[in-house]
Records
---
Amino acid sequence: MEKNQIILKGIAAAPGISIAPAYLFSKESESVIAEKIENVDEALENLDAALELSKKEMRKIFNLAVDKIGEKRAAIFEAQMMILDDPVLTSTIKERIKKEKMTPEYIVEDEITKYIRIMSASNEPYMKERSHDIEDIKNRIIRNLKKKKWKSKITNDVIVVTTSLSPSDTVLLSRSNVKGYVTDFGGLTSHAAIVARSLNIPAVVGIHEATNIIRDGDLLIIDGFHGEVIVNPSEQLIREYEEKIKKLSQYDEELLKIKSLPAVTLDGKEIKLMANLDISEEMSFIVHNCADGIGLVRTEQLFEEYEVFPDEERQFEVYNKIAESIYPKIVIIRAFDIGGDKVLPVDLHEPNPMLGWRGIRLLLDSPNLFKTQIRAVLRASKHKNVWFMLPMINSLSEVSAAKEIINECKKELTGEGIKYDNEIPVGIMIEVPSAAVLTSDFADVVDFISIGTNDLIQYLLAVDRGNEIVSTQYQEFHPAVIRTIKHIIDEAGKKSVPVGMCGEMAADPFALPLLVGLGLESLSISAAGIPLHKKILRSLNYAELKQLANECLNLKNEDEINNKLHKFFNEKISDQIKNLY
């Protein structure tokens, strides 16, 4: 029986069109059931792998927790690690797997639950508390066992449909040649959307009912330009979209013809179009699309695929490979920006994580973690094409404290006879309104500035970019946003400090004329977007862009600014990108 065609509307999070079957991805562990196994050796290997991964995860948590949360709280994690290392428990579980030939998750659930019941029944409050710790360990082991099973089941050439995606989910799934992402929740600035754009994979997010309506194996068309997902499309619609895919391919070929040309306006103003690097797979895109360097290496994202924070040697290998691949162009490595809506490998529940222990605050409170990264970055700077950037800076004292640690690391490396760039440029991200206000003061003590619009806009407008209830209030063309960007550019310019932008606003073709007109000379975006940005810039006059920006700066609300930009876009640029559809 032919299935009915359904069109679902969401947010167009990453451009592109794909036609492929749906794959429903659930991150929740299925309930553990009593199930027989055929291969005992494989089950024991899976158990060992899950235990080892659980230990590494706990070690990661413990190392950070002991720095900030204190010995008492950290001791809980140490106790959990001891449970994982308990030879009696592990040998009992293994013996039961051999004897009963049941799945390891069932045996883990059954065996550890015995301990939990005994401790929960205790009259001692301490024992009851410890039962929760063991429950956590049990769930962690089972989750890791389930994850291992899921990895083996993923198939190629599917459109992933799920409630929400973490960046690590997006990366992991992309390695299975995923053709698109559809989610119930999420927005334009979610990290999963950013990674999808970086990998050139279409994504439509915020559909809400996607996982209830779509079934495994349903044929889908994902339209990442208009935010539509068509479930069980008609033959005619399939033919129409196949034709659109063909046109897109031809347009991509047209863009590639100009990829090696400079991003220069008709009247000679050259703009640096650099690339953001989130995951190692993007490096080939960056080189292929002739980026003018790497304007942002999101190191916390780069290493999210690792089970533990990598040591200095491993970090050095990664940074050095990036620096050598892009040489002689510049690469800006950002220090770990952990916390907030990003990965926080600590069991810490903050009332408002976006205003909490994140970015430079966490790094200065975790000197061992910070020093390990600084040493690795310094070692990779030996060819003098590496810059180092500090995230979430709020005050001059944070810059001073970070520079002290950098100088300490330099002295250590000098003592060890290791080469590095002693003049490595050190800059900051301006993402907090207080830092924007103090731009002139920061320009006295840093070598460069990068505007991170994703956070700057949400802090400036007091709008949580991940909250769909108020997402319409997240306005990148709000007058306060535009005037703040102009203030940063002008104040830094007075001190001859270069300013770039690496937030998602920089990647928006619609925002490009305004940003260049405001005086930005360097933009860092996903590598996939560079050819289109270049094509647009090469068709415009800088004098016109400055006039456009000045007019927008005098407007009083975002609707007026939007209308002004739309008028300019339709008159000057629409021909450049109309072939997208």
Note: DSSP finds 24 helices and 16 strands in the chain.
---
Amino acid sequence: MSRRLTMGSVATATALALVAIVPTGPSNAAPASTTDYTVVAEDGVSADAAVAAIAAAGGTVVERNDSVGVFRVSSTRTDFATRAAAADALIGAAQRKAIGYAPKLEIDAVEQENRVTAATGTARGRSGVTSMDPLDDKLWGLDMIRADESRRKQAGKKGVTVGILDTGLDASNPDLAPNFSASLSRNFAPDIVEVDGPCEVESCLDPVGTDDNGHGTHVAGTIGAAANGVGVSGVAPKVTLVELKGGQDSGYFFLEPVVNALTHAADSGLDVVNMSFYVDPWLYNCLNNPADSPQAQAEQQAIIKGMTRALTYAHLKGVTLVGALGNNHEDLGDPRTDISSPDFGAPAYPREIDNNTCWDLPVEGPFVIGVSALGPSAKKADYSNYGTEQISVAAPGGWFRDGFGTPSFRSDANMILSAYPKKVLQEEGTVDEDGNVVPAAASFVFKDCTAAGACGYYTYLQGTSMAAPHASGVAALIVSQFGHRDYQNGGLTLAPWKVEYQLNRTAAAHACPKPRLQTYTNEGRDAEFNAYCEGGKNFNGFYGYGIIDAYAAVTTRGL
């Protein structure tokens, strides 16, 4: 049923050179005579033995992640990589550098489709529902998963911690500030000038509680925006939110920051981690794709190895892992030719994807709950990936083009509304210098303030990135309802397999559409978007075990 990557599936292949060119940190910080590398230890080698081998090869360890055997190293020796590869304790080393300039990402064609294509529809209302916060009447996703009903039983507990492994978290938003833990939060992705543009602070390490991209803030709001009379409320409005900044301001997610974020989550006893991204620069990481150079193969092997180790480590430490299936409108069990990789450092080129040796990470990694995206009609959104091999459940992700033949077709309100940083909206030009929403953005950007004058900003996005946090919120409710005391880290804990089991078994089963071949011609999409739904009502490629149900998840006993 699942082609989920496991430790066993890469045991033989990872005897190859597993190294990655992972640009992290300011690229202009080191003298020209010093070169930075990422070094990966051999399986079974202790961290101290690896450090000793690095030193013997002429390198100095700058940063170490002992839990997964990944090291950041600097060296003045021109032959360091060769010497490291020859060391028995090390798999190898690769130079860490950023190539070319990539400015901050502009409008995302999928997540911000309403900015690319003008809205023409009329927003639909939510009848008969009591809102907890002023903008909750726009959150159709809460209705779909019965999160508004689940709060009467369980709204989440402060002792349950949810990690937002993303681009940051704007803790100045009055909806996020009450639930934000600064003490647990960390930034693992210092700005890279060549990728992110000029650093905002001298150290290039943005303080926690900030988000210069906006994606992470939006995800955090869906999971756990406080029900406090301002803005919106989240699926689990009383849980604790933890920033795990593993994504660059520009939106790239590289191996080392992601691995470090996952191990921190594990060591800190976090209960749930949401991952709405894929690890750059490869859409699919392949063991030995014939289209790739040896260097490119080694880089992907490193990502596979590093992510497998980190995800497994987090799972074994009690972290429930939730991932977005992706926005490439394809069956993960039968991928199309990859024409977008690498998306950083070198020009992309076409690669045929072998389903048995290539993985979309982290969602196809071990122990990750994969989530597809639905529109308000409960149809699979045209952009959402699908397939029986990795999907677990479906959740509201938004679909701008939903509602064909009705007044709501192509309306902003078909998407997901959540928190967003004022600074990013001002950079986009939708909020002016005085903090007011400009008239042209009034249908998709909102401002709401507390009586004390603290204002939060909110906007619509769509994507599997928006579906995954709905599932993460329900997972947090499950831990809140059925978890037991965590004597090691404090708060509550519940074994990840129990969380996943409860999430899956309480999801509302949903059969494939009839006919099974879903076309999106009416919505303006070509045949590439056609999607065939395999499976029965209890499990299929569009919905997995069903649409997540927060109320059933906290009221169905048996754990």
Note: The chain is about 20% helix and 15% strand.
---
Amino acid sequence: MTSSRVKPMARRRFAAGLALIAFLSASGSPVFAQDANMLQAPEGMQPARPVPQSLAEPSSGETAAGFAVGPQSIVPPGFGATTPSSASRTVEPSGPAQFFPAGVQPAEQSVRVLGSVPGRSGSGIEIGSLSGVDAATAGLLSGQQGFGADMWRGASRSDIDSYLSRLPVPMRSPVMSDLARRLLLTGARTPEGAGNASSLLATRLNLLIAAGHTQAALQLAEAAGKERSPGVASELARAALAQDNEKLACDALKDIPPGNDPAHDGMAAFSVKLSTYCQIAAGNREIASLTLDLAREEGLDDPLFYSLASEAAAGITLRAPEPNELGIMDAAFYRLAKRDLPENATAIAVPALLPSLLDDRSISAEQKVEAAERAAAYGLINGRQLAAFYRKPRFTNEQMAGLLTSDIPEASPLRRAMIYQSIGSAVAADERIQLFKLAFATAESAGLYYPTVEALYSELSAIEPNDALRPLAPAATRAFIAIGENTKAREWFALVAPGGQMLGRDERELSGLMRVADGSANDFDGKKLSAEIIADLKSGVKSTQFYAASEAMLLDALGFQLDPAVWDALLDARGALTGKVPPEALLNRLHAAGARGAVGETVLLALDAAGQAGPGSVHPRASAQAVASLRAVGLESEARRLALEALMARSSAGRG
């Protein structure tokens, strides 16, 4: 396309920038619950018993806006908290001085919902419409795949904007990544309250791109209709650039107004860079060079951009430092300039670029292993796809034979690829046992346990449990529990007997993991389990105490009734509990959202409480409240998976 975006006078300001996403923060002082401190259970279920009042007393140093100095209350707070109050909102500028001619301001669109998961074969896509609803309601998931068209019922617009501004994407937690993706793709009516209709859609697109789901972001933007706000258009352009779709990115430029301060306004800077990109791509190199000169005059400071754009436009090579992070626009200009990506591109690329790097022929098989591991950690590819990249590197016979003494760094992606390949070629039982345990241990330390279990599934599931493989039983049991293969997990668990201290501990914790994964709250030996938990809490071993405390709180959140003595023992062992404690106000709001049946708000707050590191890294009270509130809004399966992930992080059983 030919761009005419040139200003006639050098001193004229760049026009108003792309629309900023309206991220709001809650204001006001919340009122904390005073008379109830119990985990929330779904309506109609037997409520969990209150814990001792001493457990509910907040620390004097804890406030609604900050984190506690240390865990004081063991279980999540009860009812009575206020919801976040409304806050002022940043509004998109409406009449910018023009540097480049902008497109027509879009009108409101009705909701369009695609009723299938993007990319899933064999599932026809049906598009429906809800009249009188704005473009922000567009979605790709409906029915049981999403959270329902009324998922924002009872929530205020200011609250949802505030919660979305803190959504911790990308995440390495499988269950939390899945919840976030489904939340962002669900077609739903907008929450009540004043606000720009398209800004919610722009926010969802921005978060999908940050999480790496660029194809879903493109589909969502297209489902919203052809008339787009500047914010939506800019996110569409970013997603298109990430997928090297030059035409779609430059077509979006007509809906993006120019910015008036690229030196300080990120959206204005994006407008200038996208204009330059499209001018060069269309062959208008002289116009692009003029745009670069004007950008310098306006104070835009980005040496890498000028270096790449100048090389692409005029063949001029300017010195610039290598990026610390490879962004979407950076990668687009690297392609345009026909310059090789940085050597560490697979390590520094934003998640949105990882799928394209996996298809890039200029990236070596060794480098792609690193990109594949990162993509798998963020849920962008599955374990089977990760296995395919583990098979690509070629190792010498000497390297394979000397795996345990190899000069390849122990924590490197290549070493994990070598371990994977060795498992496929190993014949002796002892060697296979050692390699499986090594694979699981190294993967867990790298945050890749779940995709690694999927990658090794075919190899592990082909092995029949027998006494000769008993040393592998704890690791195999843990692996099958992690991916929901409970029948296979029980087959391997039968080999785990208390034949020694380590196996005895493995039996205790693995049985607890299986109970959380699929156990019945109405069919278990409460006396026996309570006694085991109390014994662990009184053991004096911090790791054992931490596991038992987490187990007790998560079981309580799942509706399991434990003896009152468990909570007394838990109080005595509270010093062994660690993990980030979310603000008291956040946990109160999470509890209240579940009580109201506010599905979308509950999911958002659960994601916020767990944080980017996931449910296994926060204080047990936070993960337990997330579990209880998810159950309260009918997300039983998701609550179980979250509880399992949290407890597995606290368990040392079967780690290899």
Note: The longest helix spans residues 501-518.
